[in-house]
Amino acid sequence: MEKPHNSAIYRILDANLDRAREGIRVIEEWCRFSLRDLELADQCKHLRHELAQLHRPIFRQARDTLHDPGTQLTHIQEQSRASPDAVLQANLARTQESLRVLEEYSKLCEPAMADICKQMRYQIYTLESQLSRATHHSSLRSRLLRDPYTLPDLYLVTSPSETLVATVKAALKGGLKLVQHRDKDSSDSERLHTAHQLCQLCHQHDALFIVNDRVDIALAVNADGVHLGQQDVPMALARQILGPEKVVGRSTTNVDEMERAIKEKADYIGVGPIFATPTKVGKAPVGLDYIQYVSQNSPMPWYAIGGIDEQNLTEVLAAGAEKAAVVRAIMQDPNPTEITQRLLKKFPGHNLERSQ
């Protein structure tokens, strides 16, 4: 049976190859410039280039835009978009529909092309799910900028461990919503690799991911922000590099450092070490008095940190802290999921939220 190689089929393939590539490009730009997710943007770019390779000259030669009645067709919903999400949904649908058309009509003349388009359609479905998670997480950052006190109550600061990723994953399953990757000793390549893993893991669980000290690594992995010590780069430079949507925190150990953080307009501050801790060798604990001062004078959210565990967290909260950061309490516990759940239950806001 002779395959129907005719100009109408070629025009259909030509139009839908263009339509699919245009739809993907719209999505790609949002991934690149708004979400700043280079991984999703690269997926879109790869799909576009794959479609371009399928766009044979014979398809373009059959194009007849002047006599195409479809150029006059429009719909009122195409004249405006209510939100960026509406733009994404429209172009995801456009791409999926075009790929289905390509799949069906290429069966008449290019069977191999039909299978490629079918697989690409499935990739777009997966991309749609990934975009949904990424866009939700972006809106979480936007809410945080509007109301900094939406920062989670419990903050995990990691310490080096052979089971680091598994421990963080288990804590996230327990309800943890904020993780800082802290690693002073590994090579840059190792820190970058681990940060990328943790960032992806946190975002899969709708949790925020912060990088300690290293603005460059935070930028490279699309972290939600960076936490700076007193000797790290200026906060203004960190904001310039990361952009206005990212969170920048600052460690403080006394009133003068807190005042400096206020002038720098830190998004949040760390307050401590409250108790003696091996992660801050040589630094004397500031005790509960500093907590009381900060609770009365800090205009931004803050985390008590340093030697805090399940046994003394109640004491820290009673002294005036509303949020707390922990290290060993989770990193060294044999069951990170359960200890995270127990720690969260100690925060009044968490119990109130669970009861509503």
UniProtKB/TrEMBL annotation:
ThiD2 domain span: 11-129
Question: Where, in this chain's numbering, is 2-[(2R,5Z)-2-carboxy-4-methylthiazol-5(2H)-ylidene]ethyl phosphate bound?
Answer: T277, P278, T279, G307
- Sequence segments annotated as region (Thiamine-phosphate synthase): 124-356
A Gene Ontology molecular-function term?
thiamine-phosphate diphosphorylase activity
Q: What class of enzyme is it?
A: transferase
Span list, region Unknown: 1-123
Its job:
Condenses 4-methyl-5-(beta-hydroxyethyl)thiazole monophosphate (THZ-P) and 2-methyl-4-amino-5-hydroxymethyl pyrimidine pyrophosphate (HMP-PP) to form thiamine monophosphate (TMP).
Query: NCBIfam families in the record, alphabetically?
Result: PRK02615.1, thiE
Q: What is this protein called?
A: Thiamine-phosphate synthase
What organism does the record attribute this protein to?
Acaryochloris thomasi RCC1774
Q: Per UniProt, what is the name of the gene that codes for the protein in this document?
A: thiE_1
